[in-house]
Amino acid sequence: FLQVYVAAYRNRKLQLPEDPSDLYEISKDKEAAMEVEFLAHREIFKFLDKAAITTLRKTPNPWRLSRVTQVENAKIVLGMLPMFFCTIIMTLCLAPLQTFSIVQGLTMDPTITKSIKIPPATLPVIPILFLMILVPIYNHLFVPLIRKLTGHPTGITHLQRIGVGLTLSCLSMTAASIMEVKRKAALPKSQPLPISTLWLSIQFFIFGVADMFTYVGLLEFFYSEAPRALKSMSTSLLWNSMALGYFLSTILVKLVNRATKDRTRSGGWLAGNNINRNHLNLFYLLLAILSLINFCIYVVVARRYEYRPQSPPVEASKVRVDSNEKAAAKIKVEN
């Protein structure tokens, strides 16, 4: 991919041919015995097409000339990047939800029954439990039902699935903000507060459903759209998205505390160890607004995305037979 970008930059002053078939590509007949992937030219990211403009050089330099298939693979990866960046904000929301909810739970009533109590540190397990229940229900009940309505093999497209999850993450942050207002309203009464810790499971339930849509949809999207040589590497994009979200969450907390340092007694919305003096509800509301803005951006880039053509793989042996038949027919005509 780096060779494609370098070649496109070096050839930036060259004129693209009117016929895309004039762009450089190896002969399918000559390469019939090799497992070479071929992709058709598409009218997107046309500035990368200049990497495939044939020059007068006898020996092609890979840093100056790329195959059409290489260029199309680079287009696919470039088109996937906006979706990758739009999903980072979801993990950015998940990180504070997991950490601050434990602190909230320490101030609330953990009693379920007289003999059963829920430890606040187990709250982040709730989304995983919901996922274990919801994923089979989604695959065996929801997908077949929606498939009858839409005619799509997966019920809804991968990008639509990601969009649903991003919407639910915004709702989860809104629910978390409302729950924090409710928790702080009970502060003067007693310790622990007369509010069950299970109330926090609402925001975790919504986020668990969001996980099912966004993370699973993102993984399927990356795997189905990635070039053949990058199928396994595409899986790492999901974990990179999550890692960047957690990292940026730390930066966001520091920025919020710095910006609100002089406006609160605790030295910031999230500063100090006393959560009752903090303004966690405002921070959750900020995350909800960021999620909404992120979703609007996602809708724009998702509507402009063009799925790669899904052509069935052709076996090398079959291509080789076809090539031999063509060669035999050519000899017969010449004779």
From TrEMBL:
InterPro entries: MFS_trans_sf (IPR036259), POT_fam (IPR000109). The chain crosses the membrane at residues 76-97, 118-138, 158-178, 198-218, 238-256, 282-301. It is a multi-pass membrane protein. Its main location: membrane. GO terms for cellular component: membrane. It comes from the Eukaryota. Pfam families: PTR2 (PF00854). It is found in: Membrane. The keyword Membrane applies. Keywords: Membrane, Transmembrane, Transmembrane helix. GO terms for molecular function: transmembrane transporter activity. Coiled coil: none annotated. Signal peptide: none annotated. The keyword Transmembrane applies. Belongs to the major facilitator superfamily. Proton-dependent oligopeptide transporter (POT/PTR) (TC 2.A.17) family. This is Nitrate transporter. It comes from Linum tenue.
